[in-house]
Amino acid sequence: MWMMHMTFFWGKDTDILFHKWPGGRTGMYALALVFVFAMAVLVEFLSHTRFIKPASNHLLSALLKTFLHVLRVGLAYLVMLSLMSFNGGVFLAAILGHALGFFLAAAFHKPPQDLGFDLPPVSC
């Protein structure tokens, strides 16, 4: 009988997002960690960058903002579902991904102070 972990544990024998993935294989576990890390970086990047010019078409701006919001929320939920594996490596990959994404957005994407960001911050 298959049991799901309900506390944090360390090891590569876990299921992340999909049944039998990564399946206990070291290479696939590393790929899963990279995938979670990349999703967390992208969530932060989408949260802190500006894609839409202030003088652009309001309807197209609203459509693009809606698409970006759906993408950001979907990725955030996938990261959260990955964390529900209770694997310590996945937890560290998600935290480090969010940290790197926040750092990159803060260091390299400096929007004008009066314009803000395209999307409101993710509320936890």
Automatic annotation (TrEMBL):
GO-annotated molecular function: copper ion transmembrane transporter activity
Presence of the UniProt keyword Transmembrane helix in the record: yes
Membrane topology: Multi-pass membrane protein
Location (main, coarse): membrane
Transmembrane segments: 27-47, 59-80, 86-108
Subcellular location: Membrane
Record InterPro entries: Cop_transporter
UniProt xrefs under Pfam families: Ctr
Record's keyword terms, sorted: Copper, Copper transport, Ion transport, Membrane, Transmembrane, Transmembrane helix, Transport
Superkingdom of the source species: Eukaryota
This protein's GO CC annotations: membrane
Family indicated by similarity: Belongs to the copper transporter (Ctr) (TC 1.A.56) family. SLC31A subfamily.
UniProt-listed PANTHER family: COPPER TRANSPORTER 2-RELATED (PTHR12483:SF24), SOLUTE CARRIER FAMILY 31 COPPER TRANSPORTERS (PTHR12483)
Protein's recorded name: Copper transport protein
Species the sequence originates in: Flemingia macrophylla
